[in-house]
Write a structure and sequence with these properties.
The protein is of the alpha+beta class. Helices cover 31% and strands 10% of the residues. The radius of gyration is 51 Å and the shape is elongated.
């Protein structure tokens, strides 16, 4: 299927309607595309080299004088604290604990009561002793 007729080798290609047709060979288009791609790759490589090879200014150096002082560090966290030494405390009588004189984890001093006990058996014994007097 011919779109144009050629009269002589150096004549223009003319279509059936008599209008000159511009015709490029397919190989010329491929060469042009490859040349454009090569220029783009070379340009990208040059810009990348300039960007990576560029030395940036070093960060500013901050200096200060060391001072000896007490450090206090507070760490907030969740967890359970286990004592190094465990001590079990026993009451000399059977009784119910009615009052704790401190909060859990509080520091206790010597001579301060740990808890208040109530014993029905002891109360009965006390009432019997008072009755005998």
């Amino acid at each position: 299927m011919s779109l144009a007729r050629v009269e002589r080798a150096d004549d223009q290609i003319v279509g059936r309607d008599g209008v000159p047709v511009h015709y490029e060979r397919p190989m010329a288009r491929r060469r042009l595309a490859l040349a454009v791609a090569a220029v783009f790759v070379i340009l990208a490589a040059a810009l990348g080299y300039l960007y990576v090879g560029r030395e940036s200014a070093p960060p500013p150096l901050l200096l200060s004088t060391a001072v000896r002082r007490e450090l206090s560090v507070v760490i907030s966290t969740n967890g359970i604290i286990e004592p190094v030494d465990r001590i079990e405390i026993y009451a000399p009588i059977d009784a119910f604990v009615t009052d704790l004189g401190h909060r859990e984890g509080a520091e206790l001093t010597a001579g301060r009561p740990l808890m208040r006990l109530e014993s029905p058996q002891l109360m009965t014994s006390l009432a019997e002793a008072k009755a005998v007097l």
